[in-house]
Sequence to fold (254 residues):
Amino acid sequence: MISINVYPLPLHAENDDLSDFVAVVIDVLRATTVVVSAFAAGAQKVIPMLDIEQARQQKEVLEKIHGKGSVLLGGERKGIPIAGFDFGNSPQHFTSEKVAGKILILTTTNGTVAMYAARNARCLYAAGLVNAQAVVERLKNEKNIAIFCAGTDGEMTEEDFLLAGCLVSRLSRCFPQNQNRQNQYCRNHHAETAKQLWENLFFIDNNESISELKLIEFLRQSRGGRNLVALKLDADIMFAAKIDSIDSVPEIRL
Ligand code: MLT
Fold:
């Protein structure tokens, strides 16, 4: 049996044994988009941390080992960059000039919390719209898949659920090529709902047809998007909406 479970919030997975699952964490706006972008720009490692002080201490410890300037701090609280950090949480700022070869320590309000919630899975990947198809390629031969949406401030958020639906929809379309796999395939209720959301928005005549403008508008109106619009961070939404622009999948090790 192949299972795909979508969790709209990390707490929905609290009672599930995920030791045999491959997990994907989604925080489209913006934590996992940052992780994916930083890796694509050549960051050596991204270390998620829950706490700002711990992040600062970890930087000191690692710089004693790897040298001054080898570790960068990134993240936000309430969407705003943290005092003394090298970066906020705007994915387009993580350029190869700044992050190639560096260790990045990231702490965010919801995204890094979701990564810790998924830590008992067999392995853990970061997904954004930007690497959606690469994630599908990575997962399509897996048996048990758990998709964690980070949510925003304890509430489910539409942009994460939309990407979950995109992944479920694309994964489902991988299976018909192999009849045996399709017959043994099951999704939880949230996975089914997320898939329908994606297909209602981006399917024409049974084929995926993505309008980037429509995607940007959807993100702007989502819970996470409204927060960013209020902070005049529209550029981050535009970046996060560049679907399938990155073909790598960072593995998160905690
Ligand atoms: C988070 O982890 O809560 C987000 O990434 C929020 C943000 O980027 O502002």
In short: The pocket of D-malate is lined by residues 27, 29-31, 76, 79, 89, 108-111, 150 (CB under 6 Å). Residues 158-174 form the longest helix (17 residues).
